[in-house]
Specification:
The chain is of the alpha/beta class. It has eleven helices and 15 strands. The radius of gyration is 19 Å and the shape is globular. The protein binds zinc ion.
């Protein structure tokens, strides 16, 4: 059966991407870094359990990395409450990139968190303030999933700050350096906490969810930028890696190197498929078959497997786009 990410989202997924009544909110505290916690809003969207997460960084000041989609905001705010954080105590919303699942709730959250400012890549700032174009584009590419994530509200005036590469956010006892890491999106940044050797990757390191690890490189993909961003993060020699999806892991440097190799493996398979005329679906199948990080995809529940499959197709489309630029 031929599926493209677009057709899958907008036709097959209508039943899958409904909101669930009882998200199981989860809070995790990092065992070795007391300043770091994670809020998993739970299955706010059916099929996306164990996929969405926000990170809380708490010192004298408090920052939240990736507020998540609009539909997850009530659960995320409840998570803050359970961590004992008052809405007035949140100083920063750090938005790794403006895709709906990372920054969709920013506008609404800024109204509820009266002292917070949102920090985003300069190319994303206007989209937080006037999200209509972003919303229309997301609906076109994600279809029903965009509807499930929810429409972003405009950020209140004066509350969005354009980040700078190398900027240090001083939380008082914890410093976070902003690193522009284009690849997954051109307006993407990651964060580095040198004291704990903690690298908050956003989506630079791909996706690790449900026991599989996969690239997240939709078109238009500038692969050289993505690889250079990974080089830059590897050079920091990080110890702990936080994924935008999902959770943290030790051996960060090794994970980042492995992700780089995975991207090159998939690129080579996509190039082989182009030569042999396989088509996108067979190419996606070969990526899954030849990559041992994808073992386990078949064993996932149907909703998650189909969702992951759509994202795999999207990365194959991104790599195909990249190869077409080099060799039309
Ligand atoms: Zn994402």
């Amino acid at each position: 059966m031929a599926i493209s990410p677009q057709s899958w989202y907008s036709s097959k997924s209508k039943n899958h991407f409904t909101h669930t009544d009882s998200p199981v909110l989860r809070i995790r505290r990092h065992p070795a870094i007391p300043a770091l916690s994670m809020i998993d809003p739970g299955g706010v969207v059916l099929g996306l359990e164990g996929f969405l997460c926000s990170y809380v960084l708490q010192a004298e000041k408090t920052a939240l990395l990736d507020i998540g989609p609009a539909c997850a905001l009530p659960a995320t705010l409840e998570g803050l409450k359970r961590l004992g954080i008052h809405p007035q105590a949140v100083d920063y919303l750090l938005i790794s990139h403006i895709h709906l699942d990372h920054g969709g709730a920013a506008g609404a959250a800024l109204r509820i968190l009266p002292n917070a400012v949102a920090l985003v890549h300069p190319a994303g700032a206007a989209h937080l303030e006037k999200p209509f174009k972003l919303w229309e584009g997301s609906r076109r590419t994600l279809g029903a999933l965009a509807e499930a994530y929810g429409q972003p509200e405009p950020a209140p005036p004066g509350r969005v700050i354009a980040a700078q590469d190398g900027q240090v956010i001083d939380l008082g006892g914890l410093e976070l350096e902003v690193l522009f890491t284009p690849g997954h999106a051109p307006h993407h940044f990651s964060l580095w906490d040198g004291r704990h050797r903690l690298f908050l990757a956003g989506e630079l390191a791909g996706v690790r969810a449900h026991g599989i690890r996969r690239p997240a490189v939709p078109p238009p993909l500038y692969l050289e930028q993505q690889l250079a961003s990974l080089d830059r993060s590897i050079a920091l020699r990080p110890a702990v890696l936080c994924y935008g999806h999902y959770g943290w892991e030790a051996a960060a440097e090794r994970r980042l190197r492995a992700h780089q190799r995975q991207l090159l493996l998939w690129r080579d398979i996509v190039a082989e498929g182009r030569k042999a005329g396989w088509g996108q679906e067979r190419t996606a199948g070969e990526c899954i078959r030849r990559d041992r990080k994808m073992v386990g995809l078949d064993a996932l529940p149907q909703t998650q497997r189909e969702r992951e499959m759509a994202f795999v197709m999207n990365s194959v489309a991104g790599l195909t786009w990249h190869l077409k630029q080099a060799l039309p």
